[in-house]
Amino acid sequence: MSTPRPRNVTMRDIAEQLGVSIKTVSNVVNDRPNVGPLTRVRVQEAIRVLNYRPQVGAQQMRTGTSGLITLAIPSLAGTYFSELAQAFADEAQRRRRSIMLHSTAGGREEEHSVLAGFTRVLGDGVVFNPLLIGEDRLAHLGRTILPTVFIGEHVEEAGLPAGSDYVRTDNRGAAHEATAHLQALGRRRIAYLGALDSSEAQQAHSTSRLRLDGYDRALKAAGGVSPVIQTVPGWNQEGGLEAVRTLLQEHPEVDAIVCGNDDLARGALLGLRGMGIDVPGQVSVIGHDNILEAPFTSPPLTTIDPDKRNLAATVLDLLLERIGGHDGPPRVVEAPYRLVERGSTAARR
């Protein structure tokens, strides 16, 4: 004989136990001011002891909002996106909201489903980082199903649909600055490790393409320096480890490496150490993303910090304004970044 599942605690249960009205309990749950301090403490203690959890569906029917925000990102496998998701979760919690993660790793059709509001509309708004969706699809959308803020650098600003905003990241400018940093240290044979041979990478607004373009522009600005471009099997530590060995075998003259992201840079550092190449004495290495492990690599990794927490805060501010009723034209905000110099780069000896 199966044991029946315990019934969820309701606001009525708390009200009956304390001898107060359901409205009073609701006011405490929703942090409304019209409750006496002693009563508020009693209700909060009962909520804790009875492990009461508000039901999202009931809240949405009562208030018109669910308190949920969907974060649709390409994957949680990479370090950057997992840290970005945590930054959004932390910032949402400060605003008394919850983040619902949705991976679009399924590809273009999965991204189309985000624009179509999924099979069912869940949450009050969407933060969406598209990779593969065509810009013409956005331009002809007219209006997003839910209030939406796009992030990344895969969106054409002129084609933003109504009901949305865009917080862009200047990947091209950041890679240019990373390369210029190495040039200022006297490095002259600078390679780019991170080119991808894939349909995603061929798009004009793909991250890998933009960072490669920023590197190339910095070389051209210096004059007379040919690029050295190393493809990788993937933007991960294993890809960096494999690619740096090939790079140095084919181009032993390389004295600095701009990596597409920090995971690649971590793999490159490991590979260089295995080949007995001193970093930064012989080869300087710079990454991108300032992941949590960056200060703890050997040597500590110089990198571009896109300030994930600032990005999350900016995005949520815009989105909550949309959810609250703002219906102005699409807004475009450029997220700041900075170069964090650590031990993996140094002046040429």
Automatic annotation (TrEMBL):
Domain HTH lacI-type, residue spans: 9-63
Keyword DNA-binding in record: yes
UniProt keyword terms in alphabetical order: DNA-binding, Transcription, Transcription regulation
Molecular function in Gene Ontology: DNA-binding transcription factor activity; transcription cis-regulatory region binding
Keyword set includes Transcription: yes
Gene3D superfamilies named among the record's database cross-references: 3.40.50.2300, lambda repressor-like DNA-binding domains
SUPFAM superfamilies with a match to the protein in the record: lambda repressor-like DNA-binding domains, Periplasmic binding protein-like I
Residues in the signal sequence: none
Pfam families for this protein: LacI (PF00356), Peripla_BP_3 (PF13377)
Highest taxon of the lineage: Bacteria
Entry protein name: LacI family transcriptional regulator
Organism in which the protein naturally occurs: Brachybacterium alimentarium
